[in-house]
């Protein structure tokens, strides 16, 4: 049983700390685990739960109120003063340099954010300024610097200014600007200049910028969650080094739970629910909207520090490393318990994941349900094993913890799956590995543009296995020679609704095992050659 439980003192965000004595059994909960250090140390397990009220918790959000100085604070200030005075006499130049350096502070962060690190519209936004870049076909982005106040009651950010010139910009901060239907579902936010007398009074002050974006639209589809949200968030905010507060429109608790590990590496502060949090949050800068570079990609030429999709991939590694190590330990501990009870032979105890089947490259089949199912999936798995792969089948659904999918694919050498949103998980694979996408009829362009080309940019060896008409379940519905089978491009000209109904919603695949075996053999040979080229680690 836990020794203690404590709730963090934030009014709308609660962090539950559960302390276990060293040696107590771990429990599988959605948590992060800090390593126990030293004899008798306690291990702290915690999870973050958001109640949708926003809040400016953390060191950035400071509630505007007077506080009496405690004795402990007074003593700490005296000690700090003595230390600073001593340092000033010993090394005055270094000390003054330190004092005037705002490493990652509001001014530096705001200036960097306003420029975006690249040339173009709004690349030089001064104080008491408002600028919107609407030059991209994919997304608008606005920058405001000065005294910014979030006023959710009027769906606006107020730029408090002595400048009497009326100025207002409107934005729907979502990255599918060209799709009018979905953009109409995104809330519109105003950025407007107001006089000090008309400004809302600050309830919470932040000394870091805010980034405003929406998790509405197509959120719920993993492809769009990464392409329209997580990757643009990385592009827009990564250079701020976590000195940023995320303000979210169409806020979803489940989105925070699903992507919290990643989001926490981009921001050190709790996110704010723009609609539900009625407090007035004040910022030195607001960035409304996100930059997007293309399909599942990061263009180094367009990022402030030359970051690439490989850097995003390393961010994912950092985000999930602790949780993966915990899951590995938990599985081994559970298996040992079962062995002691006599239910699992010692030979079947799982070794550390990195040592499993080192002589056989691991291949993961990402299974689908509903449409675009591999009808002979079991035969394909057996075929891959016969070729020489250690085969795993994963069946992700909406309830599957993202970290567990990441763990499987990060440790894999090859991934096989049918075109669809789940192919977004190629982002979880390490460069140099193999991604085989089964391309059903009528999906050639989308398969290449949305997954094939981005996978190649990540450094994967991409294989697009285009099925023949006889490998499609549509061959059992339409006669030989029907345009649905022979001319998918012509059928697609009838419109997206027809394409979706025929090729996406009603099509399964039954792979030609002899033909698909050729691709598996080539993939195995490629991976084997890579292992031979890789230098062995010294023992």
Automatic annotation (TrEMBL):
Q: Say if the entry is tagged with keyword Glycosyltransferase.
A: yes
The question of whether Mitochondrion is a record keyword is answered with no
- Sequence intervals crossing the membrane: 74-99
GO molecular function terms attached to this record? pentosyltransferase activity
Which superkingdom does the taxonomy of this entry point to?
Eukaryota
Q: In this record, what's one Pfam family?
A: Glyco_transf_61
The subcellular location is: Golgi apparatus membrane
Classify the protein's membrane topology as the record does.
Answer: Single-pass type II membrane protein
- Pathway entry: Glycan metabolism
**Region Disordered: start-end pairs:** 336-359
**Keywords for this protein:** Glycoprotein, Glycosyltransferase, Membrane, Transferase, Transmembrane, Transmembrane helix
Which residue numbers delimit the Glycosyltransferase 61 catalytic domain?
Answer: 351-435
Q: Which GO terms describe its cellular component?
A: Golgi membrane
The name under which this protein is listed is Glycosyltransferase 61 catalytic domain-containing protein
Q: Which organism is it from?
A: Panicum miliaceum (Proso millet)
Write the lineage as a comma-separated list. Answer: Eukaryota, Viridiplantae, Streptophyta, Embryophyta, Tracheophyta
